[in-house]
Write a structure and sequence with these properties.
The protein has 13 helices and 2 strands, in the order H-H-H-H-H-H-H-H-H-H-H-H-E-E-H. By secondary structure, the chain is an all-alpha fold. Strands 1-2 form a two-stranded antiparallel sheet.
Length: 281
């Protein structure tokens, strides 16, 4: 065996080890959360640690949906997240198309710079003004208002993503559609949008995951327990008396399901969309 083959084999082994380390770093916390959610009360605090319960139980999940009213929190999160994600997707597609086809380069460059600038502003800087503004209007504890705030937080980056997708679509296709008798709306709907479906899916998934997992704005804007979203409900399991680890773990497992479903369904489109948006043809 020559030196070249040895180097190639060593390179493969090193890559496999690195990938295995990343895999374990990603999977082990999820595995431990799931194991914690099916442990009994005595096994949660047992020393030495119990790595797998002798008698797995779903008691934490039953308590989660009966005594903790987690089903209502889940519905609240679904309402806010789906409403915000769909609205942000539609608005960003419209604004991204307009920005992509904008002909004045200086104005276009200024608008793009403005969008990028909004991404440099920490969300903590706007939380207090937002709360004061909406509290004076008596719009705190209002899920539709929370959805509007979430739309504002993701619309800038979604527009940037959308613009990059539309930049890849040749204007000649729209002109050809106009020659065939299509107006602007018809050329967009029947020609442009079908070519950018992977990108639109990527925008929706980006918005969905960010909004579903958002905590700080929701904690600030929602005080009534009946209006809690999932992150706020999980945060409420932490009290002065301690942390309800079994409820917390069960809630995390349940809260992971929507994002897993979204990515499972849209994985093919997400990868294609991000690839298309990252390379300008």
């Amino acid at each position: 065996m020559n030196a070249r083959k040895i180097k190639r084999i060593l390179g493969i082994i090193i890559r496999v080890i690195i990938l295995a380390c990343f895999f374990l770093a990603a999977v082990l916390p999820l595995f431990w959360i799931f194991v914690t959610s099916i442990k009994s009360g005595t096994e949660l605090y047992a020393i030495p640690l119990v790595y797998w319960p002798k008698e797995p139980t779903l008691a934490a999940y039953k308590r989660l949906f009966t005594y903790s009213n987690f089903g209502q929190y889940f519905k609240n999160s679904l309402f806010v997240t789906l409403t915000s994600s769909v609205a942000a997707m539609i608005l960003s597609v419209m604004s991204g198309f307009a920005l992509s086809r904008f002909r004045h380069k200086k104005t276009k460059g200024f608008l793009e710079l403005l969008l990028y600038f909004t991404q440099t502003i920490p969300s903590f800087m706007i939380m207090l003004p937002l709360f004061m503004f909406f509290s004076k209007l008596k719009l705190v504890d209002n899920l539709p208002i929370l959805a509007v705030i979430y739309i504002a937080t993701v619309i800038a980056f979604s527009t940037i993503m959308s613009r990059s997708f539309f930049d890849r679509i040749p204007v000649d296709l729209e002109e050809a559609a106009k020659i065939d008798g299509c107006n602007l709306a018809q050329s967009i709907i029947h020609v442009v949008l079908p070519l950018t479906l992977p990108g639109i899916a990527a925008i929706f998934c980006f918005a969905f995951v960010n909004i579903w997992n958002e905590l700080f704005i929701a904690v600030m804007m929602i005080n009534k327990a009946s209006k809690y979203t999932v992150p706020v409900a999980l945060n409420s399991f932490i009290s002065k008396a301690g942390v309800s680890w079994d409820l917390m773990s069960a809630g995390i497992v349940v809260s992971l399901l929507p994002t897993m479903i979204v990515f499972g369904i849209g994985q093919k489109y997400i990868v294609a969309g991000l690839t298309e948006g990252g390379v300008k043809g």
